[in-house]
Amino acid sequence: MSKARKEKFKEGKEKFKTKHGVFDEFTNRTIFKLITEGHFRGLESPISIGKESNVFSALNKSDERVIVKIYRLETCDFNIMHGYIKNDPRYQQISRKKRNIIFAWVQREYRNLMIAREAQVNVPIPITFSNNILVLEFVGKGNEIAPKLKDKIPKNKKLFFDKVVDNMRKLYKAGLVHADLSAFNILNFNELPVFIDMSQATTLQHPQAEEFLERDVRNISNFFKKYGLAIQKETIMKKIKK
Predict the structure, then answer these.
(1) At CA 221, angle to CA 216 and CA 223, rounded to 5?
(2) Residue 7: its pLDDT value, please?
(3) What is the C-alpha separation between 89 and 19, in angstroms, rounded?
(4) Average pLDDT of the residues in 6-10
(5) Phi, psi (degrees; rounded to nearest 5) at 196
(6) Which residues make up the CATH 3.30.200.20 domain(s) of the chain?
(7) May I ask the CATH architecture of the domain 3-141?
(8) Whose CB has fewer CB within 10 Å in the chain, the N or C terminal residue?
(9) Rounded Cα distance, 56 and 67, in Å
(10) If you compute the radius of gyration of the chain from its CA atoms, what whole number of angstroms results?
(11) Residues of each domain in the chain carrying CATH 1.10.510.10
């Protein structure tokens, strides 16, 4: 990485480090690794700051925006993460060490996104991951990320709802349940639903998969019922499983 790029990153890093406390030395090294591999040039503004993770926009070498999702090593609730992972047949051999759980969580989100994309579910394109950092497609226009469903109600609510259900059906057919689906985890991008936060997506082999699916259906149904849609949850479950 050139001296100019190092200085630019250092300046941005110090700004966000002071303001948000996200950058520990291990995370710094992982960011540098991803920069030197050419996945992005440096971090821009934070999109969201949370207890579990911080999400930044960044520019790649083609001046296209990407999302850089950094999981916090110190404040992540790895017990909740382990609760999901321990019954995932892909991760049953994972140790209970905190960092191993977080790294597996990031890899799991990447793999879930890959499965969803292959099933033609509307999700951001996963680009790469390393340790506690996931890089994925920026869904939006220019420097404006697409709003969440809770913040932008679709014009044609019935059509949007039907597309949400169809994406749930495709995901189920691919062997996954989102397990945390709500108006907070769906983007409204040009009147199309885009599922995000796929780290909790769970295989159908999980003993609570049915419970998670019912909760997803209930969350989405209750949200759209507020806008006058007549929805039968049992009918939606049948559509997803057909």
Answers:
(1) 100
(2) 57
(3) 39
(4) 54
(5) -125, 180
(6) 3-141
(7) 2-Layer Sandwich (3.30)
(8) C
(9) 6
(10) 19
(11) 146-241
CATH number, domain 146-241: 1.10.510.10
Cα separation of 157 and 168, whole Å? Answer: 17
Q: How deeply is 216 buried, as exposed, middle or buried, from its count of CB atoms within 10 A (0-12, 13-18, 19+)?
A: buried
Q: What is the pLDDT of residues 93-152, one digit of tens each?
A: 788 788 899 999 999 999 999 999 999 999 999 999 999 999 999 999 999 999 999 999
Q: What is the pTM of this model?
A: 0.89
Tell me how long the chain is: 242
**What is the per-residue pLDDT across 35-85, written as a single tens digit (0 to 9) for each?**
999 999 989 989 998 878 999 999 999 999 999 999 988 877 878 888 888
Q: For residues 228 and 118, give the distance between their C-alpha atoms in angstroms, rounded to a whole number.
A: 33
| Residue 88 reports pLDDT greater than 90 | no
pLDDT tops 80 at residue 21: no
Q: Give per-residue burial for 192-212: e unless 16+ CB within 10 Å, then b.
A: bbbbbbbbbbbbeebeebeeb
Q: Which residues are catalytic?
A: 180, 197
